[in-house]
C-alpha cells in the first residue's frame, strides 16, 4: 500500500508539472470521490492496527502535497493571465503624441489683416457697415441718383426696390459722415456683392476695403502720400504709384491708382502683362455733393476716399491666377499660405 501511495504521489506531481495540465481533470482523477487516493483509503480497513495510522498519515501527506501542487499551479496560471493582461493593456506614456493639425487664416483674411495693420499704423480706425444696405447709402447719398447710368457697372441683388446687397464699401463713408463731424479717418473692410457671373476674375461676392479721411485742408497731396505709404508697406519699399484720371460719381477729381510692378520693378513681365504697372484701387477727393448729403459743410471741410479689392491684392501678392480658388476651400490650396 505504501508503494501504491508513493506511486500515486509521483504520478500526480509529474502530471501537475506539465504546463498545459488539465487541473480539474487531474484533481478528480487523484482526489475525487472515485479517485485513486480515495480508493486507497477505502482499502485501509484491511490493514493491521499498527499499519493503519502510519499509512493513514502517509495518505494525508500525499493528499496535502497534491493539493498544494494544484494550488501552486492555479496561482501560477492566474499570475500568467494577469501578466498577459498587463502587457496587452500597457500604455507607453513616452511615445510622442499625435500632432494636431492647426488651421490658419485664409489668404483673404491674411491680406485684410495686413491692410488693417498698415492703416491702423497711420492712425485710422476700423468701422464696419451692413451688407444688406439701403439704396440710399449705396447709391443716392454717394451722388448716384436712381436710374443714373453709373449704376450699370455696379448692378447688384435687390431685396426690395430700396434694399439691396451693397455693391461697394463706399456706403460706410456716408453712414460715418452722417453720424460724425470731422476729423474723420476710417477704413472699412467687408463683403460686397455684384450681379456678376463667376469666372477667373469675377465673383458675385467679394471683399473691399474703403478708406475715408475728412478734415480741414485735406488735399490730393495727402491722398497721394497716403497711398504711396500704403503701396510701399504692401508691395515693398521700391514700389511707386501712378494716378490715372478716372470717374467715380462720389469723388472729384477721381483717379485709378496703379503700383509699379513688384515682380519686374516696372520693366514689364507676365504679372503686369508687359505694362510695368498694376492697377490696384480707385480713389479721389470726396465730392462736395456727398459731403453736403451727409451733413458736412464742403466750404469748411474736404477729404479723400479710396477703395480697393481685397481679392485683387491677394491674387497679386500670392500670384493666384484664378479667383475661384479663394472660395473653393480646397485645403491643398489653402495649406500653402
Ligand atoms: N467704390 C468704388 C468701387 O467700388 C471704389 C472707390 C472708393 C473709388 C472710394 C473712389 C473712392 O469701384
Task: Considering the chains and any ligands shown, give keywords for the structure.
337 residues; alpha+beta; BirA Bifunctional Protein, domain 2; 7-stranded mixed β-sheet; two-stranded antiparallel sheet; 11 helices; binds phenylalanine
What would your notes on this structure say?
The protein has about 325 residues and is α+β, with helices and mostly antiparallel strands. It folds into 2 domains: about 90 residues; about 230 residues, BirA Bifunctional Protein, domain 2. The protein has 11 helices and 9 strands. The strands form 2 sheets. It has a 7-stranded mixed sheet with strand order 1-4-5-9-8-7-6, sandwiched between helices. Strands 2-3 form a two-stranded antiparallel ribbon. A hairpin with a 2-residue loop joins strand 6 and strand 7. The longest helix has about 40 residues. The radius of gyration is 46 Å and the shape is rod-shaped. The mean pLDDT is about 95. The site of phenylalanine (PHE) has 11 residues, from strand 8 and strand 9.
Amino acid at each position: 500500500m505504501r508503494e501504491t501511495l508513493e506511486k500515486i504521489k509521483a504520478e500526480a506531481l509529474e502530471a501537475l508539472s506539465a504546463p498545459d495540465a488539465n487541473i480539474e481533470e487531474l484533481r478528480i482523477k487523484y482526489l475525487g470521490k472515485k479517485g485513486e487516493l480515495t480508493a486507497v483509503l477505502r482499502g485501509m480497513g484491511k490493514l493491521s492496527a499498527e499499519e493503519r495510522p502510519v499509512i493513514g498519515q502517509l495518505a494525508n501527506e500525499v493528499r496535502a502535497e497534491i493539493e498544494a501542487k494544484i494550488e501552486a499551479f492555479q496561482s501560477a496560471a492566474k499570475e500568467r493571465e494577469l501578466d498577459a493582461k498587463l502587457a496587452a493593456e500597457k500604455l507607453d506614456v513616452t511615445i510622442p503624441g499625435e500632432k494636431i493639425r492647426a488651421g490658419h487664416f485664409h489668404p483673404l483674411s491674411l491680406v485684410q489683416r495686413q491692410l488693417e495693420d498698415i492703416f491702423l499704423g497711420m492712425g485710422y480706425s476700423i468701422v464696419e457697415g451692413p451688407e444688406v444696405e439701403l439704396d440710399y447709402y449705396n447709391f443716392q447719398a454717394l451722388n448716384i441718383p436712381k436710374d443714373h447710368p453709373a449704376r450699370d457697372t455696379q448692378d447688384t441683388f435687390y431685396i426690395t426696390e430700396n434694399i439691396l446687397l451693397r455693391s461697394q464699401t463706399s456706403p460706410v463713408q456716408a453712414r460715418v459722415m452722417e453720424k460724425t463731424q470731422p476729423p474723420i479717418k476710417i477704413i472699412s473692410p467687408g463683403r460686397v456683392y455684384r450681379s456678376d457671373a463667376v469666372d477667373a476674375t469675377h465673383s458675385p461676392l467679394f471683399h473691399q476695403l474703403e478708406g475715408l479721411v475728412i478734415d480741414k485742408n485735406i488735399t490730393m497731396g495727402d491722398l497721394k502720400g497716403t497711398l504711396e505709404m500704403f503701396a510701399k508697406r504692401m508691395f515693398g519699399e521700391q514700389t511707386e504709384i501712378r494716378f490715372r484720371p478716372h470717374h467715380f460719381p462720389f469723388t472729384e477729381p477721381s483717379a485709378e491708382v496703379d503700383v509699379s510692378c513688384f515682380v519686374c520693378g516696372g520693366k514689364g513681365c507676365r504679372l503686369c502683362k508687359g505694362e510695368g504697372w498694376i492697377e490696384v484701387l480707385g480713389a479721389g477727393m470726396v465730392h462736395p455733393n456727398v459731403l453736403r448729403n451727409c451733413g458736412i459743410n464742403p466750404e469748411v471741410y474736404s477729404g479723400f476716399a479710396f477703395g480697393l479689392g481685397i481679392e485683387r491684392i491677394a491674387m497679386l501678392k500670392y500670384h493666384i491666377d484664378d479667383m475661384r480658388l479663394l472660395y473653393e476651400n480646397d485645403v491643398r490650396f489653402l495649406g500653402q499660405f
